[in-house]
Amino acid sequence: MKSVSDFPHEIIEEENVWIPVGDGLKLAARIWRPKDSGDDPVPVILEYIPYRKRFGSTVRDEITHKYLAGHGYACVRLDIRGSGESEGVLTDEYLQSELDDGVAAIHWLAEQDWCDGNVGMMGISWGGFNGLMIAAMQPEPLKAIVTVCSSDDRYADDIHHMGGTLLGDNLSWAGVMFSYNTMPPDPALVGDRWKDMWMERLKGSGLWLKTWLQHQRRDSYWRHGSVSEHYGDIKIPVFAVSGWADGYTNTVFRLMENLDVPRKGLVGPWGHTYPHIGSPGPAIDFLGELLDWWDHWLKGKDRGMDDENMLCAYMQDSAPPNPQYKYRKGRWVVEAEWPSPDIEPRAYTFGTGRHLIAENSGEETGEVGMKVQSPVTLGLFAGKWCSYANGPDLAGDQRSEDGGGLIFQTHELEEDVEILGQPVVELELESDQPLAMVAVRLSDFLPDHQITRVTYGMLNLTHRDSRQHPELLEPGKRYRVKVPLNHIAQRFEKGHRIRVSVSTVYWPMAWTPPESTKLTVYTGKSRIILPCRTKNIGGEEEASFDPPVCAHPPSTTVYEPGAHRWLVHRDLADQRSELEVIDDRGLFRFDDIDLTVGTHAVEKYSAVTGDFTSVRGTTEWIRTLQRDDWKIKTRTYTCLTSDANNFYIRAELDAYEGDTRVCCFSWDETIPRDHI
Fold it and tell me: Where does the Xaa-Pro dipeptidyl-peptidase C-terminal domain lie (predicted)?
């Protein structure tokens, strides 16, 4: 990525600006804007997240917002209440008070003499969520949003659940926020009150994992903030973006289908990251795309948005399995509308002999009940639900997983097949237990027998009819269920095979059922429906992007480099298998503010062969901040286990000022399982 400093507008930076919101609180903002904006007001672009503008998202903020400001916008990075220097306490995600604060901030910004009254919101992940939710609240100054890697449905497509299963990333994310919430404001900005603010956060933020586990079905807790409940409340243009390696891809397609406003979607090969720093590559000039978007909707300049295709997607070529792709070969394709008339559903039936048989091919399928009972450790090579692509967190060779599943595959393809959209698997099955799950993987079987996972889906079978009102299965009774897989664009090459794998476990991607379950899947009655693209198969690119450009990052001094490792350990003596995830952000100093930041995290997920009550997940985070004699250190630890009836949480928090421990809390919680 090329960084530049020569912009059309000279910019000024306001390091810490107080914005009044609800409850008498003030939120802390960092603002970049054109130097002459006091005389010639400009639109505002707001990013509203809890990740600490001072040291958390600083690098990304500077390369992004300085660039946009240099092209004629006032860019505002606002920390949510209780985060960074913002006052108050952060006690959960997307509370109504948080959304109300965002609306208040938008009105305040629109009234500043350097703002022309027009505001846009952009953000990735939490910031993308907030853009959608606040757009649905319809504050008058908000004219358009860009939502990246976000969700319109907090239960169906967020880091907590998938298909009614409990995601392992629910624990992982709880560990991230548990740690973030222990961080104090910077005394250089808030003065002597920093410690009182810090103590208030340490004592008041709470154990979010407990709250989340108390809502194991799609109740009002998750419906709050899910704009899928009321798409029609969004009245402004929406630019929705994600990546095939991200956990939030499905949202882009639902927004394109269900919104009734000017909208466009962009999906690349990336993980959970902005496309100008996108990995796996190719990264693109996303900031240039943003400038066109904002110029059109905030400045009224015609940038051709009214004539653009609704969807641009990266059609991935076949590739060997790699948990750490740096680049995915493929090409950009476009669709004028979504759903597209160029997508044709093609069904492949599960046949005897474990074949996938194209419907209307004349080949016999037969009806046979085939059984699958997966080991508790199936899934250790599945990668992360929401890949950040900054370590080996993508799926590995599926031969490591498919041995514990039920497999169906086509003959060698006689021509290329391209899919774009959401594959759906329909299963006719029965279970020997009242509570069971199913995981389905769609893979590319290469000629050398390597197997690359293309996409996947999971379903808690008690949620087969309702996410809000799950019902236990009747053992031995046949059910017909649908398992939607994540949207994807993929080319299966001639000579390859298409494989579907079915398993009863996908640990630690999803928490396991309380007991080992055996499913009987009926051939002839079960099938996969692929969204096959019918035009330009293997043809030329239909869109192109320039290489990424950004502003210069802040000056830093690295003392200890970071490291990201995924390790699978197996102790053959006690039959314990463990996935260890090391997320070491290193130790470095932001030179301009003389602040040294250190972050180190380790997550572990383990299980004992044959024992479904042995699954165990732990997260440990250590964070440090230092400037001269001011030194802060916090440690958070969370352990989640379960038996047939309950989840058990054990958590610890320790905070140090210098060498003195100033805070110590522990939790020991029991939460009943609810159809999970």
Answer: 291-529
Q: Provide the 8-state DSSP code for 167.
A: B
pLDDT digits (tens, 9 = 90+) for 134-165: 999 999 999 999 999 999 999 999 999 999 99
Asked if residues 197 and 129 have their Cβ atoms less than 8 Å apart, the reply is: no
Residues with Cβ within 8 Å of 185's Cβ and at least 6 positions away in sequence, in order, are 28, 54, 84, 85, 86, 194, 197, 198
Please name the amino acid found at residue 236.
I
Stretch 439-459: mean pLDDT: 98
Complete DSSP assignment for 71-111: TT-EEEEEEPTTSTT-SS---SSS-HHHHHHHHHHHHHHHT
Which CATH superfamily is 2-156+218-309 part of? Alpha/Beta hydrolase fold, catalytic domain (3.40.50.1820)
Is the peptide bond prior to 280 cis by the omega test (within 30 degrees of 0)?
Answer: yes
User: According to the model, what pLDDT value does residue 577 have?
Assistant: 97
Q: Hey, what amino acid is at 289? A: E
End-to-end CA distance of the chain: give it in Å, rounded: 44
pLDDT tens digit string along 46-91?
A: 999 999 999 999 999 999 999 999 999 999 999 999 999 999 999 9
CB neighbour list of residue 156: distance below 8 Å, 6 or more residues apart: 162, 218, 228, 250, 467
CB proximity list for 675: less than 8 A, separation 6 or greater: 164, 216, 217, 435, 460, 462, 463, 470, 471, 472
Note whether 648 and 207 are within 8 A (CB). no
Contact 96, 224 (CB under 8 A): yes
What HEC string does 218-262 produce? CCHHHHCCCHHHCHHHCCCCEEEEEECCCCCHHHHHHHHHHCCCC
**Closest C-alpha among 278, 269, 281 to residue 244:** 269
Q: Burial-class residue 444 by CB neighbours within 10 Å (0-12, 13-18, 19+).
A: buried
Q: How far apart are CA 431 and CA 486, in angstroms?
A: 24
Residues facing 238 on adjacent strands:
145, 263
User: Residue 104 and residue 96: Cα distance in Å, rounded?
Assistant: 12
User: Are the CB atoms for 469 and 217 separated by under 8 Å?
Assistant: yes
Residue 56, token pair as written in the block = 């958390």
- Tens digit of pLDDT for each residue in 549-590? 999 999 999 999 999 999 999 999 999 999 999 999 999 999
Neighbours of 414 (CB within 10 A): 9
Residue-level pLDDT at 200: 97
Measured CA to CA, the distance from residue 241 to residue 124 in angstroms comes to: 9
- Give the per-residue pLDDT at 335: 98
Q: Domain residues of the chain, as ranges?
A: 2-156+218-309, 343-533, 554-672
The 3-state secondary structure of 303-348 reads CCHHHCCCEEEEEECCCCCCCCCCECCEEEEEECCCCCCCEEEEEE
Give the other-Cβ count within 10 Å of 344's Cβ.
Answer: 11
CA 628 to the chain's CA centroid: 37
Burial class of residue 443 in the structure, from the number of CB atoms within 10 Å of its CB (0-12 exposed, 13-18 middle, 19+ buried): buried
* CATH 3.30.70.580 correct for 343-533: no
Distance CA 257, CA 421 (A): 12
Q: What are phi and psi of 218, to 5 degrees?
A: -80, 80
| Secondary structure class of 675 (helix, strand, coil) | coil
Of the candidates 587, 581, 617, 615, the one whose C-alpha atom is nearest the C-alpha of residue 601 is 581
Instruction: Work out the burial of residue 465: count CB atoms within 10 Å of its CB; fewer than 13 is exposed, 13-18 middle, 19 or more buried.
Output: exposed
Cα three-residue angle 482-485-491, rounded to 5 degrees: 130
Burial class (CB in 10 A: 0-12, 13-18, 19+), 490: buried
How far out from the chain centre does Cα 336 lie?
26
CA gap 142, 106 in Å, rounded: 7
